[in-house]
C-alpha cells in the first residue's frame, strides 16, 4: 500500500531517523528454487533460514503465486529469492557493463580465506575470475550457476575503505561537473569523462572494486 497522505501544517516535520542498521535482505527472482537452495547451502555455506509461500504480493496486491526463500550470512543479514512459476525470463541487458557492474559482494576476514574460496569454487566446477587486488579490497568473482548472478568474495585491504566521506563527495562533485560542462558545450559526455579520468586522475592510486 502506498501512503499518499500529506503532512498537516500543524504537525512537526519528521526528521531522518538515522541510517539503516544493517542489510536485512537483498532479493532476486529465481526460476529454479531447488537448484538455488542447493547452491547457496552446499556451495556458499549459507543456511536456508526462512520461507514464505503466498498467492499474491502483500505490498501491491498483485496476484502472483510465489515461494520466497531466505539464506543467512554470518552477520545475520540475508539473501532472498522468489520463485514464481510461469513468469517469463527477464529481458536481456543491453550492454556488457550490466553483466559486470551488477553484482553481489560477500565479505570474508582475510586474503587467505579469499584464496581458499577460490580453490573451493574451482574444485566444484565454478569458473572464477581473479584474485584481483583493487588496493582497497582483494576479490574473486564468479557466477551463481543457477540464476546467473555475478558474485564476489572480498576482503578489505585498508581500514578506512568505506569511510572516505570527504573524498567521496569531492569525487562526486568533479564527476558531475565534467558531465555538466560537456553537456553545456555539446561535447560527447563519455569522451569528456575519459579525458578527465586520464588527465585529472592519472596520478591517483587506482582503486576500482568491480
For the largest sheet, list the strands in their spatial order: 1-4-3-2
What percentage of amino acids are in beta strands? 15-25%
Distance between the termini: 36 Å
| Multimeric organization | single chain
Radius of gyration: 21 Å
Largest sheet features: 4 strands, mixed
Which geometry do the CA atoms define? globular
Mean residue pLDDT: 85
Helix content estimate: 25-40%
Q: What's the tally of helices?
A: 5
Provide the succession of SSEs: EHEEEHEHEEEHH
> Could you say which structural class the secondary elements and strand pairing correspond to?
alpha/beta
Give a count of the beta strands, DSSP E runs of length 2 or more: 8
Identify low-pLDDT runs.
1-5
Strand and helix layout:
Blueprint: E1 25-30, H1 33-43, E2 48-54, E3 66-72, E4 78-83, H2 96-101, E5 103-107, H3 111-123, E6 129-133, E7 137-143, E8 150-156, H4 165-184, H5 189-199
Parallel strand pairs: 1-4, 5-8
Antiparallel strand pairs: 2-3, 3-4, 6-7, 7-8
Helix pairs in contact: 4-5
Amino acid at each position: 500500500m502506498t501512503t499518499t497522505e500529506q503532512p498537516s501544517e500543524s504537525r512537526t516535520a519528521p526528521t531522518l531517523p538515522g541510517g539503516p542498521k544493517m542489510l536485512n535482505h537483498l532479493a532476486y527472482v529465481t526460476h529454479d528454487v531447488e537448484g538455488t537452495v542447493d547452491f547457496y547451502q552446499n556451495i556458499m555455506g549459507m543456511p536456508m533460514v526462512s520461507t514464505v509461500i503466498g498467492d499474491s504480493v502483500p505490498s501491491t496486491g498483485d496476484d502472483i503465486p510465489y515461494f520466497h526463500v531466505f539464506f543467512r550470512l554470518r552477520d545475520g543479514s540475508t539473501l532472498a529469492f522468489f520463485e514464481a512459476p510461469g513468469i517469463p525470463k527477464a529481458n536481456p541487458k543491453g550492454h556488457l557493463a550490466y553483466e559486470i557492474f551488477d553484482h553481489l559482494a560477500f565479505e570474508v576476514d582475510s586474503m587467505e580465506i579469499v584464496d581458499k574460496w577460490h580453490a573451493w569454487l574451482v574444485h566444484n566446477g565454478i569458473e572464477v575470475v581473479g584474485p584481483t587486488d583493487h588496493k582497497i579490497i582483494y576479490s574473486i568473482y564468479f557466477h551463481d550457476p543457477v540464476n546467473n548472478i555475478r558474485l564476489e568474495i572480498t576482503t578489505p585491504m585498508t581500514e578506512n575503505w568505506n569511510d572516505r566521506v570527504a573524498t567521496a563527495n569531492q569525487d562526486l562533485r568533479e564527476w558531475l561537473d565534467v558531465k555538466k560542462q560537456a553537456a553545456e558545450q555539446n561535447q560527447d559526455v563519455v569522451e569528456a569523462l575519459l579525458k578527465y579520468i586520464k588527465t585529472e586522475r592519472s596520478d591517483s592510486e587506482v582503486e576500482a572494486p568491480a
